[in-house]
Amino acid sequence: MRPPMFGGFSSSFTNIGSASSWFEIYAAFSTFMMLLRTAINDLIPFKLRNFIISKLSSFFTNYQPNNQVSLQIDQFWDGMTNHLYYAAKEYLPTKISNTYKSLKVGKISKHNNVLLAFDGKQVVTDEFEDIKVKWKLVENSKEDDLFENPKREYKHHNKSKDYDENGFVLSFDEKYRDKVMKKYIPHILSTYETIKAGNRTLKIHSMQNGPWKQSDLTHPASFDSIALDPDLKKDIIDDLDRFLRRKKLYQKVGKPWKRGYLLYGPPGTGKSSLIAAIAKHLKFDVYDLDLSSVFSNSELMRAMRETSNRSIVVFEDIDCHSEVLDRSKSDKFSDDDFSDTFGGGKMVKNMPMPMMPMPRKFTLSGLLNYMDGLWSSCGEERILIFTTNHKDKVDSALLRPGRMDMHIHLSFLKGKAFRILASNYLDIEEQHGPLIEQIEELLGKVDVTPAVAAEYLLRSEDPSVALEALVKFLQETDISKVTVNEEIYQKV
After folding, report:
1. Which of 16, 194, 319, 431 could form a cystine bridge with 388, CB 3.0-4.6 A?
2. Do you know which SUPFAM superfamilies this protein is assigned to (predicted)?
3. 202-309-390 Cα angle (round to 5)
4. How far are the Cα atoms of 416, 425, 430, 445, 471 from residue 437, in angstroms, in the given order?
């Protein structure tokens, strides 16, 4: 006996050829679906309905042939950030073709270009060597634990969700499993590092009586702009690039992946500008450590442990700290250079000793231990830069290779470097050639820092007026004094 509800629907098939029969079938089916939907809405709880729908959707959308392998890449792994997720997030937009129909676009601060991303509505196909893989952005729904945690507040589906903060599914033919794991995924990670280095905003970190504090590195200097002898500039760039390429060599010979530089020369010769240029060339953050704020070896080690990989650690004006002065030449320096230090200040002669000694500052041995001792393995791909105005005052233990590998003498301004400086400050044309040659000849007789020459180049927007003022200054300088530093410049 047929149920009366479906009687009309079943009898329609006996005369299926007529138009009226097709209409009756459609009307009966529509009525059935309306009744079914009403029953589902009334009888099945809202949470359970969505749970069933999500499971059905997942089953049909994730179906794949038996020879396909899927790798789930979630944003977090055991509560920690999954770097592969963010690598894929940056890598995949580079693989979006012109035929891709569903995109997200945006413009955020500190990015010059419009950003592209895919929104998960289409699969992204990528080819690597001889394999083809597919990427899909998926929503990591929390509805799977509805029955395990029924008290969890349900988020309504109409509420907007950030589909970028979920996960990816990477699928490919099973026969390429080894190549994907050993070559393709490392390729994504290395590409991500390259993209990140190109897009990131460099930071400068400073520490004074507390934790590191960071801000954007806005110093405008670069290797294209600094007034440096071209041959010396090339040597520095070649050394930096060679350092970056030699990770495996450092591991092979058992050396920490670090390199030390000593920048020495009189004030105003561009030591700070060179540091900024190195940071921009390497895309490394800068940690500017004021040694006068370090009161113990343990504090020094703590500060160094908190620096990141791929960074530059700067120790400025090390000759100003008695802890690193040359012990073999102590008789050449004043007593103040080697007076005992208490609480960060120098003890006055004939001052009575305090009842309780204050903590000592860091020691030379502590600094050396960080540079190439057991603590030197704390972090890798680091550049250590020391600056000083008086290289001869620094203890030789700091200066040897392995600690300060390359000594860079930033001297006074000479001909080739001046041409770069003048080109940066002024739009030099051919008619200014005689003035340039005259200045180059004078610079061969008088030592002037780039800072002093730059000040004269800034005094007029007319190149001829600025150059003539510099010529007059150099001509009036007492040649017998040889060196024109800031003190002499102020008196002229």
Report:
1. 319
2. P-loop containing nucleoside triphosphate hydrolases
3. 75
4. 11, 17, 11, 13, 10
